[in-house]
Amino acid sequence: MNEVESASLMQGLAERGWEVADTPCYADLYILNTCAVTAEAERKSRQAVARLRAFNPHAPVLVCGCASEHSPNDFLSREGVTVVGGTGRKDKLLQLLDKAGAYCEREQAFCELPFPKTFKTRAFLRIQDGCNRFCSYCIIPYLRGRTRSRSLASVLEEAERASAREIVLTGIDISSYQDGEADLTALVKALGKYRDKRFRFGSLEPCVITPEFLSAVKQAGNFAPHFHLSLQSGSTRVLRAMNRHYTREDYLARCALVYEAFPGAAITTDIIVGFPGETEEEFLESLSIIGEAGLARVHAFPYSSREGTAAAKLKQVSGAVKKERMGRMLREASRAEQAYLQKFAGREEVVLFERDGGYTGNYIRVYCDGAEEGAFCRVRLSEPFRDGMKGEILA
Predict the structure, then answer these.
(1) Dihedral of alpha carbons 359, 365, 371, 372, sign
(2) pTM of the model
């Protein structure tokens, strides 16, 4: 979300005649889009002000995003910071380039930003913002506000204008997408007309995986068979403590529906290790569900206490225990990924190539010679290599 919002701000600046850079350098003006998903991310966001001013101490710094929504005065008090906004009305920042002060406006409706410039291969299309789920470990709903969706017409307009060959639907909780009567299933059906592009989902909640949804994805024909289904824990008790509204059995049932509709699909996920109160037996449930669900890739990370969330008040698991469990989790995740890749040795897949390799629809990274950036090619996969597989382009 921060990446696509930053790209929109860059486009807005370019339309106003600015020359824009997306890496730190000498500049006449800096805009810092911050993150607060963890306390460490918020700390780094604050430190970034000084790093930017080292390039040009006379340039004003404008700040927006989750960290400044959470602690606006921490930024406004820093030397060189002239404007501080929050997560809402980021478009307003473009109107305040020569102003000073603070504003934090909580949005009731989806905030439209300039359409970001897109390139040959992949673009991110922002369809939703905010979250109503209030998972006990997450501060984002308090900072981003309640869920709100972009209009179907606006989503389709940006999808049509985008020059990228693949478009990733993104948001804070895209599973909650709702524009009037149109939900995520309706959006999938509407995007089915853009056959020259491949679409991919960002993170999905297990609840969105229904026969109707999967049927729409299949009939659209231009969606990648890759489903990132947030898990967080393989233990039903821990899921309840996380305020996640499904059980271990529910998750496995949703995975089974995916494989029934798309036999070669990649299901990827996130798992939190060492959530407060997690026992060894409950951790083992998280380990075992990786194989039971046939997961292709696992993003595992240790629980990080976030002040202001319900989980921060619970009894914490020690750092040593979290570190030891993370080691086991990463080894199991690596084993599962290699097992998934091995199933595709000798198979033919369509790959969209980027500068260094490319990706199949089911998100296998492929390396081979002779590929042109931005091209879809049929490739025969051979063996696991680096973080993906070797391949040979077929004539």
Answers:
(1) positive
(2) 0.92
